[in-house]
From TrEMBL:
Pfam families: ABC_tran (PF00005). This is Polyamine ABC transporter ATP-binding protein. InterPro entries: AAA+_ATPase (IPR003593), ABC_transporter-like_ATP-bd (IPR003439), ABC_transporter-like_CS (IPR017871), P-loop_NTPase (IPR027417). It comes from the Bacteria. Keywords: ATP-binding, Nucleotide-binding, Transport. Residues 1-239 form the ABC transporter domain. GO terms for molecular function: ATP binding; ATP hydrolysis activity. Coiled coil: none annotated. It comes from Marichromatium purpuratum 984. Signal peptide: none annotated.
């Protein structure tokens, strides 16, 4: 995946501009930065929810937003998204939530759908929980159920919007471990929006730092290297905050 001269925002106002970066296949790529810098806005453009103001987003050298609506729809079906709050349907059980994309976009029969749903829930540690409703489980379990639904159609790219938001440290750590496990077991590329330092250092292969003041990216690289060697002091300060 590549971004070329990308600017994103709302109306005539650019939140982030002139973004140029590449995400390698199979990596966990983190979009990081302070609150209000445009992390989620960028993810909305990458997932097909917000047209960019300028520039291109390319998947396998094909321009996503310059493609026909039908081609964009086919590409979107190759993505999975875990939204910040889980975005589960409260009136549906976990198994019904995970089954919905399979029922909508495949020709699988009820038995095959049921088998796949059980498998996806087991992958995220929720085996045997399919009959529960979102209100009956913890926040961490809802996040995991959101991951299971994002994986329903075996996507090539998984997007996570602030996956650890609202979780206690232990639940956040377990979710980070799950993301890394899924990377190795599925081989999918993962794009994660977060400002949580523990998550950044636990999961990221590469990261980009978005700056709210300048409205553009300051650097990309391994966050562990950037913490100690980034040329811009703002990047080092962000990655060292809270350190003694």
């Amino acid at each position: 995946m590549r971004l070329e001269g990308l600017s994103v925002g709302y109306g005539a106002r650019a939140v982030q501009r002139d973004l140029d970066l590449e995400i390698r296949r199979g990596d966990i790529f983190v979009i990081m930065g302070g609150s209000g810098c445009g992390k989620s806005t960028l993810m909305r453009a990458m997932t097909g929810l917000l047209a960019p103001l300028a520039g291109r987003i390319l998947f396998d050298d094909e321009s996503f937003w310059e493609a026909s609506p039908a081609a964009r729809e086919r590409r979107i079906r190759r993505h999975g998204v875990m939204y910040q709050g889980g975005a589960l349907w409260s009136s549906m059980t976990l198994e019904e939530n995970v089954a919905l994309p399979l029922q909508q976009y495949t020709d699988l029969g009820p038995r095959q759908v049921c088998e796949l749903v059980d498998y996806k829930l087991a992958l995220v540690g929720l085996g045997g929980c399919g009959a529960l409703y979102p209100a009956e489980i913890s926040g961490g379990m809802r996040k995991r159920a959101g991951v299971a639904r994002a994986m329903a159609l075996d996507p090539e790219v998984l997007f996570f919007d602030e996956p650890s938001a609202g979780l206690d440290p232990l639940s956040a750590c377990l979710l980070d471990e799950l993301i890394v496990e899924l990377k190795h077991s599925l081989g999918a590329t993962m794009v994660v929006v977060t400002h949580d330092l523990a998550s950044i250092f636990a999961i990221a292969d590469e990261a980009v730092f978005l700056d709210a003041e300048r409205g553009t990216m300051l650097t990309t690289g391994d966050p562990r290297w950037l913490r100690d060697h980034a040329a811009d002091a703002r990047v080092r300060a962000f990655l060292r905050r809270g350190a003694a």
